Amino acid sequence: MIYFDNAATTPVYPEVLQTYTEVASRIWGNPSSLHNLGSQASRILEASRKQIAELLGKNSKEIFFTSGGTEGDNWVIKGVAFEKAHLGKHIIVSEIEHPAVKEAALWLNSQGFEVDLAPVDKNGFVDLDRLEALIRPDTILISIMAVNNEIGSIQPISAISELLADKPTISFHVDAVQAIGKLSTDLFLTDRVDFATFSGHKFHSVRGVGFVYIKSGKKITPLLMGGGQESDKRSTTENVAGIAATAKALRLSLDKAQEQQKKLTAMKQILLQELDSYQDVTVFSGMEEFVPNILTFGIKNVRGEVIVHAFEEHQIYVSTTSACSSKAGKPAGTLIAMGVPQKLAQTAVRISLDGDNDMGQIEQFLTIFKQIYTNTKKVR
User: Fold this and answer.
1) Is residue 162 annotated as a catalytic residue, yes or no?
2) Aminotransferase class V domain location, by residue (predicted)?
3) Which helix (H) or strand (E) holds 281?
């Protein structure tokens, strides 16, 4: 089996699964309980929070646990909007945001807010001049992802941070789900970033755990209310075992990041060079200003899902753009925003690599690709 769908989810590291199992079986008290079992769980919880904060260069009081990226994005978009509604009701998100951001923002239209979508250029990068033109006196929130999940374009977070340097009333949120372990944290966690969202299963932790960075002093309305956990910001009993596993996974991922990025870059360069040599193949992802693990392409007149299933017959697993949208049969929203015609966008197939992949798998993929390409000649 060859797994090239790591942007959708990553396999859990064995060491991470071991941590989860040990904590789940031995430290099973509720961290909010007053007795010793609760205190044990609380110590694990806070030690994990501290480790994550230190790995990101932040304070442990700025880390809040969630169930994953979708909850985190919804919390920030809605929570900041309602918290700051008295200051204004204008929000800007980019056209290529993950649905968890984009749909949450568009829902706010029904709640009396006004949402603008910042356009991107033909290569999938937010247009800074057009973003700046959208900013108004009543703008309270701007949300831009660090790395696009469909084509892997690295968004200009540092440049946007500079743009917002003299606009302290605007909160700046970064969806960093696809960035962690692929980019240096200082590229997407600048001092100007107020909120950032993370999801554990994107960096080899268990599913159902994520966290949000909330800059000290920044206010946000809770999405979940009840027991007052997470300093009254996110009620519900914390998944202590999952959180401990996520802290372990983050440390392992960051420890391996530099070495793995070199390996990923080399594999992507081979894929890009080979795919680009086919006459009826369009490559949507580049190398410069793109993460090294994502490459999206299409075969002329062949829908992406056809190619996905053709590879699956050989136990090679790829996807059509975002896993959250692929079953809906929608063309890649990022490609449409880039001005790619819908028929061409519907051909998109995403390869997303991980450090556990190797050149032997790349060679096997390219061998099978050649067969699939030949078999689609009549359609092309």
Assistant:
1) no
2) 2-365
3) strand 281-283
